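Open question from group meeting: does this chain pack into something compact, or does most of it stay loose? Before anyone orders reagents, we agreed to write out a predicted structure and look at it together. Recording both the input and the output here so the notebook holds the full record.
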Amino acid sequence: MAEAVADTQQGPRWQALAVLVLGAGIIGLAAILVRLSDAGPTATGFWRLVFATPLLALMTARTGGLGGAPSKWALLAGLFFALDLGFWHYGIQYTSVANATVLPNLTPVVVTAFAWIFLRQRPRALFLVAVTAAVGGASLMAIEKTGGTPSNQPLGDALSLFTALWYAFYFLTITEGRKTESASRLMLWAGLAGAPLLLIAAVVLGEPLMPMTAAGWAACAGLGLMHVTGQGSIAWAMGRLPTPTASVVVLVQPVVAAILGYVLFAEAIGPLQGLGAAITLAGVVLAQRVSQAR
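C-alpha cells returned:
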C-alpha cells in the first residue's frame, strides 16, 4: 500500500492551496459544458465519469494502485458524487439560476457543522466568520444572475439544497479515503461506483441517454477531462488540508468562473458581483489563515 499512499505525505501548505484553487477554477467550467451537452441531466453525469475513467485508470496504473478491492470510502464517495450530480443538474432545470448557485454553496456550512457535531472539531469563532463571509459573498454574486423562469421552484430549491448535503458528504468521504490511498485510485473507484447509478437513474427517468451532435459529445468529453483535472486536483489537495478549510476554499469557484466569463466571453461583472467576489475571497483567505494559525 506504500505506493498507493505515496502522494498523501504532507508538503508545503501553499502548494496544496494553489492546487485546490486551480481545481475549483476548472470545476467552474462544468455548468457551461453541461448546457452544451444535449443528453439528459443524469446521463450527462454518466458520460462525464465514463470519459474520465481511462485517464484515471492510466494515472492509477502508473503508481501501481490498480490491484485490490475498492475501499468503502471510494464506494461511498461514488454514491455521494452521483447524488450530487443528479440533484444539481435537475435543480438547475427547475429553479432560478441564482438559487441553483447559492444553495449548493452551503456545503462549507454542512461540513463545518458535521465536523463540529460528530468529529468534535470545534471551529474557532473567526473561522465561523470566514465561512459566513465566503458563503455570503458567493450568494451575493448569484443575485445578479438571470435566465429562465423557474418551472417548479420549490422542487428545484429542495434539489439544490440537497446538492450541498451530498457534496459535503463527498468531501468527508474523500478526506477519509485520502488517508490510505492515492487521489487517482480513489477517484477511479468512485467513478466506477457512481457511473452505473447515474445510468440507472437516466433510464428510469426516461432521459435521452446519448448526445445527438458532435458538439454534445465534445462537451461530454470535456466534462471527463475537467473531472480528472479539476475534481482530481481537489481530491489531491484534500489529503493535505483540513476538510472544513478545503470546503471554504472551493468557494473561489464562482469568482474564477466570473473572471473567465469576463475574459473569454466579455460578460460584464456588475457591482454586486464585484462586491460578492471581494467578500468571498476575504472569507477564503481568513479561513485558511485561521486554520493555519491553529
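Observations to bring back to the group:
The first helix runs from residue 13 to 27.
The mean pLDDT is 81.
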